[in-house]
Design goal:
heterodimer, A: alpha+beta, nine-stranded mixed sheet, 5 helices, 9 strands, 27% helix, B: 2% strand
Chain lengths: 211, 162
């Protein structure tokens, strides 16, 4: 693995703090992440039940349990990225480049980086129903920015695609990414598929790259 | 081994915009891989298996909370929530046996509904009819009650002699 220096933001005082973005993780590393995140997921589940919060309002990734999917993870050909701060995994992402082609407009049929998985640590979730606020911001944004950069590095001109969970759709269609929704995908349990075109990517990388 | 090196990250101005956007968002989860593995909760997809609905309805019919069912069946709370909320979860045989005992259902038939053993055609058809008729609400409606009773009736009939 190698690491890149990045900034994330502490929510309580909006200070930027130095964190590391690890690249070259294997998908199986998700099992280590799971071990770290699982105890808090359980606490959150208990809190949601105790507060009688409707299941429709629960975090939609609350039940992702990778420990039972170890064989699938071992077989997955994907690149892994993780953000580490305070010796904890703050968020992780898996991306694929094959066999992923753009579906949108003039980019149609061109290669892209497909974001197969992106998740933030449960202490970075905002769940107003039980009074929980994220500890750190910029985890999701930085990981996705890194996917755009990976696409650019691969010669794909920053094109990326992903399937967002319903609770996340607004984040990916809104500022600063402004991804284009393509449609619901019956092959992915009807999740919304979105793409970032090379023009949209250029805006993100042009305003995003350090001088 | 991890080696440290620097890279060009996003500019501060962009980071501030992104942080403001994140403030308004509840989740950043991307789920293509989770969808492939059937890990998405039914609340996000609208898809719920007959097994999930059966466990939920039978629990509610007995007036049990999720926590109480977990306690009585001696199954951990997360497993019950997982069963009721995930479209494709297949629990282990012990869990199904414990649930069947607590919910007064026949273990071998419940295993067929769960997909742990191959369902007989009648059970499969009844499960499909049941899943198609049921909707998730806080309390059982009359239609749900009828759907549950019809499904359980088929399960009981097909369990004779098992």
């Amino acid at each position: 693995m190698s690491s890149e220096a990045i900034k994330i933001q502490r929510r309580t005082d909006t200070e930027f703090v130095d964190a590391k973005l690890l690249t070259g993780m294997s998908p199986s590393n998700l099992l280590l992440v799971e071990a770290e995140w699982h105890p808090l997921r359980s606490v959150i589940l208990q809190e949601l039940l105790a507060a009688s919060v409707l299941q429709e309002r629960w975090p939609q990734s609350l039940h992702w349990n990778w420990s039972r999917k170890a064989p699938e993870l071992r077989l997955l050909a994907a690149s892994g990225f993780g953000i580490v701060y305070d010796q904890k995994w703050q968020g992780v992402m898996l991306t694929k480049t094959e066999p992923c082609k753009a579906r949108l407009g003039t980019d149609k049929g061109k290669p892209l980086v497909y974001v197969d998985f992106l998740e933030t640590a449960p202490w970075n979730w905002t769940i107003p129903e039980i009074g929980r606020q994220s500890l750190y911001r910029l985890i999701g944004s930085t990981l996705l920015w890194r996917a755009v950069k990976q696409s650019d590095d691969e010669g794909f001109q920053g094109r990326i695609g992903l399937h967002a969970l319903p609770q996340s759709e607004g984040f990916y269609t809104g500022d600063p990414f402004g991804m284009t929704p393509i449609g619901r995908d019956p092959d992915k349990q009807n999740l919304l598929y979105l793409e970032l075109t090379k023009e949209q990517a250029r805006q993100i990388l042009d305003t995003g790259d350090a001088p | 081994m991890t080696r440290a090196n620097s890279t060009n990250g996003p500019r501060e101005e962009w980071l501030k915009r992104a942080a403001a956007a994140e403030e308004a968002c509840k989740s950043f989860s991307v789920g293509g891989f989770a969808a492939d593995l059937g890990l998405l909760p039914s609340a996000s997809t609208g898809i719920k298996s007959a097994f999930s609905r059966l466990v939920e309805y039978a629990r509610r019919k007995q007036g049990l909370s999720v926590e109480r069912l977990a306690e009585q069946a001696d199954v951990d709370l997360e497993s019950i929530v997982e069963i009721e909320t995930e479209a494709s979860v297949i629990p282990d045989a012990r869990t199904i046996y414990q649930l069947a005992k607590t919910l007064k259902l026949t273990p071998s038939t419940l295993m067929e509904v769960a997909g742990l053993t191959t369902p007989r055609p009648q059970i499969r058809d009844a499960a499909l009819r049941f899943a198609a008729r049921s909707e998730s609400t806080a309390s059982l409606t009359r239609e749900e009650q009828e759907a549950l009773e019809e499904f359980v009736r088929v399960l009981v009939e097909k369990s004779d002699g098992v």
